[in-house]
Amino acid sequence: MFSKELHRNIYIFSLILIAIFLPLSKYLLSVSQFILALNWVLEFRFVDKWHRIRKNTPALLVMLLFIIHLVWLANTQDFDYAWHDIKIKVPLFILPFLLGSSDALRFKELKLILYFFIAATVLSAIISSFVFIRLSTQGIAFDTREISIFISHIRLSLMVNMAIFSAFYLIKKSEIKKEKLILLISLFSLFLFLFILKSYTGIVLFFVLLFLSLFVFKTTRLSSYWRSKAYITTVLAVLTFAFFTIKSIQRFYNIDNLDTIQLSEKTINNNPYQHDINLKAIENGHFVWINVCEKELEENWNRRSKITYHEKDARQQVIKYTLIHYLTSLNFKKDSAGVWSLSEEDIVMIQKGFSNHIYKESFSLYKQLYPIMTQIYNYKTIGYANGASITQRFEYLKIAKKIITNNFLYGTGTGDLEIAFHKHYQNKESILNKHFQYRAHNQFVTFFISFGIFGGLLSLFILIYPFYLYRKYYLSSIFAVIVLLSMLNEDTLETQAGASFYAFFSALLLASFLNNKKRM
């Protein structure tokens, strides 16, 4: 219908649109993929496309991952969920097929697509940062996950890392100073945004990728002079981090000895204290449920705060619990004297939902590690994991292990994953409350649950082998690390954003470069 050149321009334009809308819009991402598919059909040349795709092993493997989901419908009961899952996974077939059957991209075309992806990710980061500033200045407590308004914060952190190291790669390739400067500013801005986003997955990924880029990947390794300096800097940074981490752990586990604690009988107002030494919850090493006089707490807190004792704080927690934990963190008794010892700043912190005074500190490693250490402590000592993102995953994996054991050969099928988890939760096999009863949060485990041992191993092969083939290509290696490490901590392919991210860059960096001799 149109000239070959026009179809090529539409093809590149469609890929640019996909790159732009990955971090910005799920709906327009779908529209962009439709434009790409429509152009492919209208271009005809089906014989040429067939010859390309049948020789394109990476594209065929990614497509096979989608076909596995179709095949395992035969072992499915819940087809409503199964078709929902299939709909999410469609990009795993469509994008490798369309790109793998098209002419290989030239470097300048890849460069253009990457530039738009970096720019779109920076824009998403800027918008999220403005949301963060607005929420911060409103004086309300909020979860930093809320600032990612287009896609989940973890998926965004994966794209931020891909954009950072794409910029790093393009800086190495570019010879134009202005271009290098723009890329460097983008790179640094996205690096800072990772800490605003507070995605531990994204932050850990960044430092792993930085180490690999500097010391492992041949295409980006530094000269011997700079490599030795980078080694020294890296070793010093790791040792410094390790030192302060160990100090933080020692500080956290400097716990009061119950045998030597003074358990008072009555307050200065002659009201009785309550002590529950069986509850081991702590704040800054002090036990929460000793020296508690709720009568005085309620009366005096209601005099100091407009949010009353039994109302909820900004984090939707009953404020009496926030107050008791906060007083404990200061090693105050939970009575009238403790309430009136609080500063006005402390009152505001409690109203915002902060349960420890350390959160007033502008920055400290201890403050960053404290929630993680608290989660692990509570899980080990009192068997509590609700609302704790790290220790909840221990419970998910416990249930997952039981499901895999019961469905070892053939799995649960594409659509019965939800049913399998729900069955074990209903049988009270987990300490998690209903609100926190989720699935595996590990893509590899999810494959073994759904497809059994044979389908699970085949899925792992599909994920790993294409990257092994193209391990000498820097961007392919970067993307492999991002995807494979994220799958240890998340069901990366179980959302539209995650599936599209994987499918698009798999096709872009693997399938579409099969015939391109220029090493990327």
- Main sheet makeup: 2 strands, antiparallel
How far apart are the first and last residues' alpha carbons, in Å? 34 Å
Share in helix:
55-70%
Strand elements, count:
2
Coarse shape: globular
How many domains make up the 3D coordinates? 3
Rg, please? 27 Å
Unreliable spans are none
* Category from helices, strands and their pairing: mainly alpha
The helix tally amounts to 21
In spatial order, strands of the major sheet run 1-2
Percent range for β-strand residues: under 5%
Instruction: Give the mean pLDDT.
Output: 90
Please write out the topology:
Layout: H1 4-21, H2 26-43, H3 46-54, H4 57-71, H5 79-89, H6 91-100, H7 107-137, H8 153-173, H9 177-197, H10 200-215, H11 224-252, E1 282-283, E2 286-287, H12 294-304, H13 319-329, H14 336-340, H15 344-352, H16 365-381, H17 389-406, H18 417-426, H19 443-469, H20 474-489, H21 496-509
Antiparallel strand pairs: 1-2
Helix pairs in contact: 1-2, 1-7, 2-6, 4-6, 4-19, 6-21, 7-8, 7-9, 8-9, 8-10, 8-20, 10-20, 11-16, 17-19, 19-20, 20-21
What can you tell me about this protein's structure?
- This protein has 520 residues and is mainly alpha-helical.
- The protein has 3 domains: 4-219 and 440-513, no CATH class; 256-374, no CATH class; 375-436, no CATH class.
- The chain has 21 helices and 2 strands.
- It has a two-stranded antiparallel ribbon with strand order 1-2.
- A hairpin with a 2-residue loop joins strand 1 and strand 2.
- The model has no long low-confidence stretch (mean pLDDT 90).
